Structure formats: structure tokens, C-alpha cells
């Protein structure tokens, strides 16, 4: 069971599913039944987990060369690496997309599919081994999850949902670039051109700070559209922490500060999603 949870990257899947819930809650409208929201959330979780499993299946050679990943199931042999896995992964993705379509609409199903496709194919297969900007485009996976939740409420996406999708797109690079500084030697050994490997830690730290600054600014701007005071408080607290930690990283671009920046990005995202979902729930409760 532990190997399966690792293989399907369940923690990342849960985070992406929560972004879909945030997209659902930030979108104006009240036509969605609770069971539809639950099915969509589970569909996004299933599709993102399938994409995570494909990532490990495809990158078994890279994982074997990196200390951070050499204990993954395909590398250790706890899970046998064979051709049946891609068939299972495609089937799980198909089930997820079909469930999203049947429970909500075609637009939500399309965004559910695009999120998995972006991570599994665009990032893992096309970009990761070829360009230092791999994770920038790979960040669309989280954005598509937001759009899937928003489209379930209304296929005509709201300004709030689009802005939240942009925020998630900008969040991903500083999160992974911080981790890439911590494990720069691992990525260099595996031949993966992550930004710190290609441009150095100092350049990567500046890129992290710039992305964080713009992303936090947009997260505060989102409060001007509809989210309430709780979202604003969470966005301020998480944003201040992230900007502070990334500013420290710019001054001293080392692994310790990169790890602090990585953790700050997790806290900031958690607060952002919590505030979005809680404010949306309160609006729905007051409306009822």
C-alpha cells in the first residue's frame, strides 16, 4: 500500500484536487449539486494520480540516478516495470475524464484531461529532459485543475477562476526551482536541465523571487473581485511569508534558504486554497 501511494503521488494528487475545489468555490453560481462537486474532485484526483504514476514509469532511469528518488517503487523493484502500467494509467485517466463529463459537463472533463496530459506528456516526456523552462509550462497542470472546478459551475469561465488559474501557474516554478536548488547535484548527475543546473543558484533565486512577487501580488488582487476577508487574511499571511523567504534566498542563495523557500511555498499555497474554499463555503451558506 505504501508503494502504491508513492507510485501514484497521492499527496500531489490531493493538492491538485484541492485546487479544483478552489476553482469551484471561487466561481460565481450555485447550480452545482454537492455530489457533482465530489465526483469532479475525485476525478481530478484520479487523473492527476495516474499522471504521477506515468511520470515514475517513464522516468525510472532518471530516478535511479537521483538520491531523492532512488527509493521509488519502480527503481527498487517493489513494483515491476512492465507494459501493463501504461494501459492501466490510460484506463484510469479515461475513467476520470468520463466521470467528470457525466457528473458535470464536457468543459470540466476537457480541463481534467488537459491537466493530466500536461504533466504526463508535455512536462515529463517533451520538456523535462530538454529545457530549463520545463516546470514553467508544467505548471499548467495545476491551472487546468482550477479551470476544471470552475467549468463544472459554468463552462463560461469567470474572471475570478481565470485569475486563480494564473496564480497557480506562477506558483509552480518558484516551488520547484527552490527544490531544484536543494537537489541541484542530483539533477546535474541525472542530466536534467533544471534552472539552477543551467543558470546557477543565484540566477534561479532571482527568478524565484520575481515569480513569487508577481504571484503574491495577483493573489491579493483576486480579493478585489469576490473572495472575502478570510481569503484576504490567508493571502496576506502566506504571501508575506513567501516573499520574505524568497528575498532571503536572493541575498544568500544556498540550500538551507532554498529549503525554507520551498516550505514557504507549500504554506502559502495551503493558506491560499484554504481561504478560497472557506470563503466560498461561507458565501454559499449565507446565500442558502
Features of this protein?
single chain; 288 residues; mainly alpha; Farnesyl Diphosphate Synthase; 15 helices
What are the segments in which pLDDT stays under 50 over at least 5 consecutive residues?
none
What is the H/E order?
Answer: HHHHHHHHHHHHHHH
For the largest beta-sheet, the strand count, sense and barrel status come to: none
Proper CATH architecture: Orthogonal Bundle
Number of helices: 15
Number of strands: 0
Kindly report the CATH topology.
Farnesyl Diphosphate Synthase
Task: Assign the CATH class.
Answer: Mainly Alpha
Rg (CA only): 19 Å
User: Can you give the mean pLDDT?
Assistant: 93
Q: What level of helicity do the residues show?
A: over 70%
Secondary-structure class: mainly alpha
Shape: globular
Strand content: under 5%
Count up the domains: 1
Instruction: Report the end-to-end length measured between terminal Cα atoms.
Output: 41 Å
Structure description:
The protein has a single domain (2-287), classed as Farnesyl Diphosphate Synthase, CATH 1.10.600. 51% of the residues are buried. It has helices spanning 2-7, 10-26, 34-58, 60-65, 73-76, 84-103, 106-127, 134-138, 140-153, 159-182, 184-190, 195-199, 201-221, 229-251, 255-287. The mean pLDDT is 93. It is globular and about 55 Å long. With 288 residues, it is mostly helical.
Amino acid at each position: 500500500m505504501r508503494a502504491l501511494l508513492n507510485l501514484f503521488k497521492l499527496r500531489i494528487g490531493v493538492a491538485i484536487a484541492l485546487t479544483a475545489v478552489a476553482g469551484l468555490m471561487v466561481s460565481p453560481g450555485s447550480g452545482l449539486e454537492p455530489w457533482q462537486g465530489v465526483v469532479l474532485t475525485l476525478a481530478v484526483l484520479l487523473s492527476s494520480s495516474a499522471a504521477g504514476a506515468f511520470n515514475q514509469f517513464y522516468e525510472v532511469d532518471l530516478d535511479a540516478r537521483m538520491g531523492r528518488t532512488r527509493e521509488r517503487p519502480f527503481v527498487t523493484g517493489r513494483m515491476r516495470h512492465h507494459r501493463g502500467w501504461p494501459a492501466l494509467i490510460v484506463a484510469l485517466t479515461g475513467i476520470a475524464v468520463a466521470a467528470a463529463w457525466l457528473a458535470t459537463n464536457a468543459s470540466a472533463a476537457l480541463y481534467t484531461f488537459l491537466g493530466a496530459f500536461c504533466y504526463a506528456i508535455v512536462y515529463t516526456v517533451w520538456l523535462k529532459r530538454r529545457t530549463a523552462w520545463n516546470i514553467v509550462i508544467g505548471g499548467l497542470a495545476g491551472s487546468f485543475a482550477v479551470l476544471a472546478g470552475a467549468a463544472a459551475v459554468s463552462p463560461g469561465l469567470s474572471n475570478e477562476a481565470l485569475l486563480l488559474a494564473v496564480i497557480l501557474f506562477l506558483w509552480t516554478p518558484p516551488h520547484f526551482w527552490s527544490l531544484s536548488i536543494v537537489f541541484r547535484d542530483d539533477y546535474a548527475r541525472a542530466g536534467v536541465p533544471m534552472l539552477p543546473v543551467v543558470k546557477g543558484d543565484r540566477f534561479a533565486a532571482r527568478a524565484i523571487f520575481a515569480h513569487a512577487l508577481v504571484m503574491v501580488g495577483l493573489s491579493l488582487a483576486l480579493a478585489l473581485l469576490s473572495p472575502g476577508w478570510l481569503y484576504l487574511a490567508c493571502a496576506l499571511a502566506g504571501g508575506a511569508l513567501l516573499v520574505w523567504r524568497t528575498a532571503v534566498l536572493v541575498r544568500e542563495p544556498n540550500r538551507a534558504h532554498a529549503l525554507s523557500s520551498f516550505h514557504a511555498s507549500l504554506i502559502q499555497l495551503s493558506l491560499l486554497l484554504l481561504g478560497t474554499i472557506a470563503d466560498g463555503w461561507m458565501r454559499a451558506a449565507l446565500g442558502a
